[in-house]
Amino acid sequence: MSVFANIIIDISLEKLDKTFQYRIPGTLGSLVVPGVPVKVPFGKGARTVRGYVLSLTDKPEIDESRIKDIISVEGTSEKKGAEEELLALAFWIKNHYGGTLSQALKVVFPVKKAVRVRESVNIVPLKSPEELKEAAREFGRKHNIARERALNALAESGEIDASLLRGKLNISNGVIKALEDMGYLSQEKSKKYRNPGIRAGEKSGISGFSEEQRKIYDSFCRDYDMGLRDTFLIRGVTGSGKTHVYIEMIDHVVRQGKQAIMLIPEIALTFQTVMRFHERFADRVSYMHSRLSPGERYDQFERAKNNEIDVMIGPRSALFTPFNNLGVIIIDEEHENSYKADNMPKYHARETAEKRAFLAGASLVLGSATPSVDSEYRARRGEYRLFTMESRPTGGSLPHVTVTDLRAELARGNKTMFSSVLRELMADRLEKKEQIMLFLNRRGYSGFISCRKCGHVIKCPHCDVSLTSHRDGYLTCHYCGYREKNVSLCPECGSKYIGGMRAGTEQVEEAVKKLFPGARVLRMDGDTVKKKEAYDEILSCFKDRRADILIGTQMIVKGHDFPGVTLVGMILADLSLNASDFRSAERTFDLLTQAAGRAGRGVTPGEVVIQTYSPEHYSIEAAAQQDYNMFYSKEIMFRELMSYPPVSHLLKVLVEGKREEAVNEEAEKLSKVAGEYLRSREDRNGSVIGPAPDNISKIKDVFRYVLYVKDPDYEVLSGIREELENDRRKEMRYGTIVSYDFDPQ
Ligand code: ADP
Ligand code: ZN
Ligand code: ZN
After folding, report:
1. What are the start-end ranges of the E strands in 441-582?
2. What separation in Å is there between the alpha carbon of 457 and the centre of ligand 3?
3. Which residue ranges form the domains of the chain, and what is each CATH number?
4. Could you tell me the pTM of the whole model?
5. Judging by beta carbons within 10 Å of its beta carbon (0-12, 13-18, 19+), is residue 122 exposed, middle or buried?
6. Minimum mean pLDDT range among 291-305, 476-490, 694-708
7. Ligand whose nearest atom lies closest to the CA of 206
């Protein structure tokens, strides 16, 4: 039994890692474990304060005679407050995902910073809603769409925070100023923190439920009121009324004096959604976004702790809102990659939400039009309750999708980027003054090699992911390190049209300008939108119909409504399909489905063209038919066959360092340790893959090697992570940095 406990006194202190040492009296013995609250004497006069045990040790850090005793262990049987709940969550994150406790604490507790009083600007309408709407119509007739949009929003919302108009509706300061000069509104500075929407709650535009909605809501409430806490997965097509169901579920929980957290990817949180929540919950709802300063984030959390709000909406980090009596967590668009943290600890918000819901006694609701394979798998195994919504209460038809085979285009002598179908449709839309989006997804693009004649892609014989070409003339697998010599002729058909795909958004832009010199073209990608303002500027320019064609990466796919768009073209679906990781088909299906959803948001039905060299791939066929079940059944077979998550678990171990030799050596060493661990447990289901250079093998002169461990049992992988950490600590190998990613995205 340990002699001393390291105790943290004030969780919200700036230095979270600052702990104080106390002696564990024999009488308390085994009660003192990490995470429990204790009473200790503290400071001058030794007043009694509450602290939390972070760790136990036998090593005194100061002169032993100065170490005081713990007074008592606080009862743990009663309901935990937010702080204890979150502390337990931090411990869980550390154990589940690796990293240090201090890293986990920093994720869970925002740092206390002096809160700069935000000077927010409120926009106050000076005319009645009817007059505003009339004026909006007038601006619309003059094609002054930004003013039309601003006045319509103002008519709907009443007084409103300027940042909401700017950020969510892409209304520029210039437009606001112009409308002010014309006497439609005034801008008022207010020092006090205020919520964005001001209209009082209890109002909802929708009366009643559709049958599908009613079924879900009733099941949720029945279970909830009986004290059952489940995880629900709602698979509902876009526009099927999921958000309406979320609002009613939250309302049910809030009426019982509990609170709710709703996670939504920032980019998908539209102005309309914010306003819908405000209509119902008025100033009892708050929302977070990534551009909040640490002080503002802290301020939001204080409001939650002080019971000033019932509902928090926000991205991943909103999950840690310190509500004392959390009743439900909702994760919308649960399949999104942004729910996985990109720094250590690499926690997944969905898994972490499951844990928090458990600790808090809350229910968890997941929703998506295209659920992640992970969630669908759990639902089908009965771990989640699955509900589907297939109809749209407001009607609206799905867009028409055409898949064009680029191999056939090549055979006909068309060597341009555009199939004849896409080219004709583009000409048609330009003629009709309708808008077009062209989409080229390069994220995860890894330099795979494929044949433009037959569509063949060169893959790793062991991992079934595409190989990546390297400058040394070899093709490499980023999972297992398998290498083979690059080819100049297609091994399938003997064609010389084999090689990498070098299409970028700039090339698309050039090609469009050549083909349609009169068209007004905008391009949006990592280069053109280094700054947030540039991003907003491009979007509002397109929204206001000051351009005909928007070309972009995945950035343009999500969240934005462009009613003028009636044609969406996917230039090269293969780019994401052949990314060298096991989730590439899933990502392609999501992207294509979502991109298709961009077409025809307005009154005119939309048209979608998917261009590809592999039209027979199931993720493309399924996306074209908008058939989730078809996609899932094929995809899960692949995961089963190859033992990839969710059927099995995968731990990615990343070794980084300045000297390549040392990095490689360390990766080899860890690979051996992991292998020995599996052998010592006679675990024949687990395997170690690699090491190999990572997908990105070098960043800023730091070399990166990876190894993967597969095992159906998550605990085994956890054990291996611990074993690897111990091994490194034992020999004090500090020349390299090692990080861990469970079931990587
Ligand atoms: P989702 O979140 O699934 O995309 P929403 O909840 O945003 O769907 O609903 C889509 C549209 O349908 C919204 O305009 C919403 O107001 C409307 N709607 C939702 N439920 C109903 C209903 N029961 N009756 C009428 N309209 C509804
Ligand atoms: Zn070929
Ligand atoms: Zn391989």
Report:
1. 450-451, 468-469, 474-476, 483-485, 498-499, 521-524, 549-552, 565-570
2. 14
3. 4-79 (3.40.1440.60), 119-191 (no CATH), 211-389 (3.40.50.300), 400-445+502-639 (3.40.50.300), 447-500 (no CATH), 649-742 (3.30.70.600)
4. 0.84
5. middle
6. 291-305
7. 1
